[in-house]
Write the structure tokens for this entry.
Amino acid sequence: MTMKTLLPATMLLAAALGATPARAATEISLFRFFGGCSDEYANVTDLSKAVGECGIIQVLANKFNAENKDGIVVKTQSVEWGVYYDRLSANVAGRTPPDIAVMHRSVLPNYQVRGLVEPLGKHFATVGVDVADFVPVAREGVSANGEIWALPFDLHSLLWHVNADLFVKAGLVDEKGQPKLPGSPEELLRHAETMKARTGKAYLAIPSQADPMPTWQYLSWVWQQGGNIVDAEKREALLESKESREALRLLNVLYAAGHANRKHDYTAAQQAFLSGEAAVLINGTWGVDVYAAQARNPNSALKNYVVRDMPNLYGKEAVWSDSHIWVLPKQSKPDAAKLKAALTFLKFLNDHNFHWARTGHLPVRASVLASAEMRALPHRSEYTRTATIATGLPPIQYQRALMDLLINELNSTWLINKPQDKALANSQRAASSILRRSRRR
Amino acid sequence: MNRTFGDRLILVLVIGAAFVWMMPMLWVLSLSLRPNEELVRSTAGILPWPKTLEHFATLLRVSLTPRWLLNSVIVAFGMTALTLLLSSLAGYAFARIDFPGRRAVFLLVMAGLMIPEQAILVPLHAMLADWEMHNTYFSLIAPRLAGPMGVFLMTQFFKAVPRELEEAAELDNASRLKIFWSVMLPLSRPALTTLGIFTFLFAWNDFLWPVVTATQPEMYTLSVGLGSLQGNFAMSEGLGFLMASAVFASAPMVILYVVFQRYIVQGITLTSGK
Amino acid sequence: MTVTSVQDAGSRPHGLARYRDALSGYAFLAPFLAFYAVFLLYPFGLGLWMSLHDWEIVGDYREFIGLLNYQELWDDPYFWEALKRTLQFAAITAPAATVLGLVLALALNGPLRLHGALRAVFFASNIFSVTVVTLVWSMVLNPDRGLIANGMRAVGLEPIAFLADQDWAMPALVVTTLWWVAGFPMALFLAGLQQIPPEVYEAARLDNASRWAVLRRITLPALARTTLLVVVLQTVMHLQVFGQPLLMTRGGPANSTRPLVQLIYETSFRDWRSGYASTVSVVLFVMMFCVALLQFRLSRQEGD
Amino acid sequence: MADVLLRDVRKRYGAQEVIHGVSLELKHREFIVFVGPSGCGKSTLLRMIAGLEQISDGEILIGGRRVNDTPPGDRGVAMVFQNYALYPHMTAADNMSFGLRNIGTPRAEIEERVAAAARTLQIEHLLKRRPSEMSGGQRQRIAIGRAIVRRPNVFLFDEPLSNLDAALRVQMRVELVQLHQRLDATSIYVTHDQVEAMTMADRIVVFRDGRIEQVGTPLEVYRTPANTFVAGFIGAPKMNLLETRVTAASTGRVEVALPGGRAELAVDGRALASGASVTFGVRPEHLRRTAGEGVFRGQVKALERLGRETLLHVTGTDGASLIATDTGDSPVRIGDTVALALEPGSGRLFGGNGAALPPAAASAA
């Protein structure tokens, strides 16, 4: 049996080694989510051919590998989104961090406070990344203690993706014939009733199973009331505040009245919107490009696609947002050549910030934002306020743990009818124990 | 004994159940042999196949699967060989050498049977992180050598070997090591085979520890690698590919099972301490 | 598991020989003991120590907080939820696997080659890794393109999203697990059946015992020890459930399938709270220890 | 020169002593049989000589060398085990040569010695086989062969024939004795079978409870057992032992009462008072049916017709029972009443403590 198993194994080993490209001068590892599409875009280096987050970042890497003069090879490791941070922290905890990693701005404090990421200010100056070109909100998002800790890549936030035809049909239009969005919770419910009555379609489609979307909507509504879920100064959770109760109440009212389907997951919600079964899809900036492309398809049920900033229901403009940023994890054995290679790649990414913005995300460079090609992208004029009303949690640690527990608890109010007060009380308790450590440091 | 109607009925029912039992496996095998374009349309039916081997070709060509296979082979063989060595050495000492503190040490070791792997997962990770040893074959193998089950089995086995054999060897001027190596080890072939197969199965299928310690795809074992593919497969276009990975990962076990079925079934009674 | 004593009727050597034996004894043990101490005993102790700390897996933050983790555990709804789900899962799966294994063993304890082949079929699923099993069953249960969905559509039923459905997720995991493990208790029961002397059955036939009477009066009582063993082994095993929910449901929907091990894994590697995760580990250890102790007590009584 | 010398050898397990100070001298080329009921310590003593058991106290010398702390392999002894203890994974040849290989004997010499032993034992055709492919008798020969090739000074046999069937056992008994005579070594043979002891031994050592009861040639042990235990243990059927009383005692003569009369024995009776309790022992072949008075009278309760002779189980009126021999064609039937006479000069007398009373001649000196 030994021989029987060993022989093919040896042959496979030979095959595997043969298939590995010869070691380049400098190989750096890139750790990212956005999905895996290395097969689809195996040898594509033409950015114009790339579509969607995965395609664009993959082609950017391909292009860099093909064109850089320093013999740098970026080896992408794409990790499925749901386990990305588990993997990243496992790698960092295991002392085998990647050379470059993508991250959300909200996660950065965890790493920055522990000294797990390389400070980049000086390096950016060296390789020529112009920090002053970052829009202020983006720059602040990656700054702490007077230092820059990451390359901001985008600003993404929630949008309301709208099927204009259904709004017209329901008569929910303003004087210009454009979809009219609600300005208060009561109006939202009225509109939803009208939509149901006149078109027979649901007003909202929102991924509600195993998805953070409703929680992001909830956060937006909390902030619109002038509240928050944490007190950044005292590092205390405020999950049982009246703003929090109200935002959760509204979500549940919508589900209960059938204005949104509580059983939809991401795919199903998106499908409901694309097939004209729902008037509004609550999803992020990353969907714009995809839905616009869908609407151009003559067979699509969605014909008149428009985008809207998050409507203000409570008086204070706010919408949940976050950023994708690139960090260089601190290595236990620093390697100057790898560091330089990684910085070269960051510079390359920054130079191509516009291409990333094609996904629908907002670019972070003032020069790109103001550029003509940016303005030429479809629908961008429809959500200009988002950049200014984008809100995130205060820069505290453990945001991801907080969000995870919040998502779990909130989801269970509509999925298993957990009493809302109980869900918030549970969240409050769990959040407090998380924040306790944040206070202690 | 006459086959009664009842016996026949039971047999028919069990055959039906076995067919249902095998369905998932056969279906997955069938999916792995059908082109993706067809699978997008329909996944129904089991026949006709095989239609294509493209998924397996892709598997070997573009993915890391061969590398994972290699890792699994190294880990499984390494763990098996070392477990056999350590367990038989220790088992021999416990069964046959009368040294002070034997009883206490044996109890201490057997107490380890009570410690589930999950209970030490986190500290073990912290420890190997301190050593900067994650993502190595060492980290995949070494912590799995500490389990006392093999020692227990080998102790039981060696205790059952007639003492005279060893005494004869002692009279034949054999040293302890010589007795162990030339007499006891060859004698324990059946026990070693059983323990070896079980260790191999365990190593091959191990998930919890490898998923924690192997964080870089190059160091995944097949089991972990397959797990990493699973995340978004419901939407995946490459369903056939995914199923081919599953078939690929389990094929060595199926072969092992077919060849060693007798030992495996025997071994179960052994491992249960009967 | 019976831990038998190694003390046997050997003599107590003295003097030179005794010294030689001590030396060789520990020399033979040394390799294993080294691994045992470093990779089992030490981590176990370290785990206890960590549970008294705020200890982060990333970075080097660790602060002694006494029993605070245990206090928080007591107040932690996620822990209780996970504990409940773990016990629920084990309480369904262990007896079900036992009964299924027993039924299969009784049906397949025959002399024909066919019996052997069928035994091999039912046992075969046991040899797959958890990732293969979950991959297969995620696909089988898939509401869109799954085997069961195909079947349901064929008879005009609406497919069920088993793994995303609050009511179906846990049963789906149980069924998956049963398919995976049932061959093991079957093999144990078959071994148990082999140990019943055939004369007993022959005597029963002479006594005109019915099939049912033979089963109830002879076979089942003879399998009592095996049954206890199977139940305990299965319980211990299923208290450790991890891969199936992690890979099939991620603990969802709405936390309804997250077991303790997954909580440990996530708390430590997702939330970085290794100290707290260690606390949960300690609880898991105590639980399994109690089951083992229970088995010890029961098998003792059995032996009397 | 004594080849094996035991001096006050003791064996203790914890607080319990199982061998109580055994001293024994074995001569070169002697065939010694240790006999005794199971648990009497004979095997333990053998294993102590082999070095497989530690000696708690006393000393053992082999060829004049103190071997208390010598490892078994270096004592110049070879052992044949009850279960043969052949290495199951080795061929017969490998089994036999294993010891020689371990001490680095040259290859050619190993082959020569194995061949020689195989010739002696007529097992040449078995050399390539493994133990599992051989019969019990064949394995036995291989085990002996393994001992022979080592050319030991002392052969140790631990009940080597007990796993063989009766016919083979008889044959092997003879062969072992013949083998012993050809070899230049001392043999120590442990058995619980007194027939083996009688037929094979130059000298018998009878053990009981970790002590030597008697040492002597087979005939000495048979004829003049040192005590009631030896008397009962050696000989089949065993010696008849009757509890009785002294009716008259003098320097060279003791008279005891028997159920059918009185018997006179040439024993030093000075220490005995009339009426003292003693045990009278007589071998069955020394009791004959007689038409006259005899010394014992009773009813025949059972008959064992052995062909060459017939054993009569006779029970007296007072319940005492003994066995006598009669001719092969004895006309006696069960239920008959017979009288038994004592052959002149036969019979032994044992004192209250079971020890044989000294013969009259000894006391005269």
